[in-house]
Amino acid sequence: MERPVAWTKVKDEEKLNAFAEDYKAFLNRSKTERECVLTSVELAEAAGFVNLKDILRSGTVLKAGDRVYRNWMNKSFMAFIVGSKPIEEGMNILGAHIDSPRLDVKQNPLYEDTGLAYLDTHYYGGIKKYQWVALPLALHGVVVRKDGTRIPVVVGENAGDPVFCISDLLPHLAQEQMEKKAAKIIEGEALDLIIGGRPVAENGKDEKKKKEPVKENILALLKEKYSIDEEDFLSAELEVVPAGQARDLGFDRSMILGYGHDDRCCAYPSLRALTDFTGVPDYTLCCILTDKEEIGSVGATGMASHFFENVTAEFLAALGNSSELTLRRTLLESRMLSSDVSAGFDPGYSSAFEKNNAAYLGRGICFNKYTGSRGKSGSNDANAEFMAMIRRILDDAEVCFQTAELGRVDLGGGGTIAYLCSKYGMNVIDSGLPVLSMHAPWEVISKVDLYEGYRCYNAFLAGAGTLDN
Prior knowledge:
By secondary structure, the protein is an alpha/beta fold. It has twelve helices and 22 strands. The chain has helices at residues 13-29, 33-46, 52-58, 175-178, 182-185, 213-226, 261-275, 307-318, 324-333, 384-396, 418-422, 447-463; strands at 50-51, 67-72, 76-81, 91-97, 102-113, 116-124, 137-144, 150-155, 193-196, 236-242, 247-249, 255-258, 284-290, 335-339, 342-343, 365-368, 372-373, 401-403, 413-414, 427-432, 434-435, 443-446. Helix 1 crosses helix 12, helix 7 (261-275) crosses helix 12 and helix 8 packs across helix 9. The longest helix has 17 residues, at 13-29.
């Protein structure tokens, strides 16, 4: 049962290419979860969405067609469009995560060794550590001083910016290194970022020799540029990401090479499907962009926390119905696409896949009825009835889609936010784009899959309805 190539079904290539350009712009602006939320707020407000906190402060009661959003700690984001049907009949929800594998700067990171200054890092999420050496890297994040002042930091993206890197051992001396297993070629503690190599200028001949002159020079530059001291690293969130822009891939420009496709290639079309929706929907619509999925959805901004439930309760209060029973019924009756990427079949590594149940670039959005690992451990395993509804919606909208599993049985697997939302009793299924080189500094997606994903999310928001739970 082979699915058709989506390129043969494209009816409006101009819209497809325009959407791809918009997505690349989003990707270039949003290399961290904080930047994703900031950009999402801008897109939402431009589409007429109002801050839910302002609605609650004013005491305004929402009505059908109203649009609101909630920024959660600058790390997660939710937005709603009020439907005409009672909220107890559930919402149509699109959910994706906006964190991506990276390197995080430690809290006491700055040191000097033999005339070079470094930032010590701790990797975030599942990475192949050897992929992060000998690459141009950028620094993104925020420093918060004790007085609460937030200082945004982005270095390495503009043409005139310096970049940073992690050094690797030259082949001539790497015989012992190359005998190690891939997981040990580069150790986690070796992922230290080179940030300088020039000592501070001496002001006088009699001045005592500085103990760490390169580190002192870096601190002087940071003080001059950002008005921060070394202790301000204690309250900083600085992320090391690949430097550079998302680019078209291939002579035919059919693909996009970029950092953070996992999972921003699902997050952006999900948000656009909501903000582009016109009129009053039957069912209330919701988009969730969440943090911390790559490390188990933990923390106050991850899906395992109560932020989704709490924001929904705030939304119900703005509708004039803040009862606990209404909240429970709303969550129970909702329908959700947990939008996360799938491993695209790679002919160079075909033994890792089972070809009949693999996701292929260029065949549209992919549905994973279950994820997890081995015996479906940690899986959501969506109901057949819900999958039947999805098939009907997408076939009616002529959306190209495929189904897959994440690799060969017993080889590996992975998890998403689906199982965390299914605990409310709602119908949830995983959907997303096939990706090559997933979790590498540079990943690959197909433009046609991106556009079919956007079309899928549009169709789901408009066409999903109640199922017996």
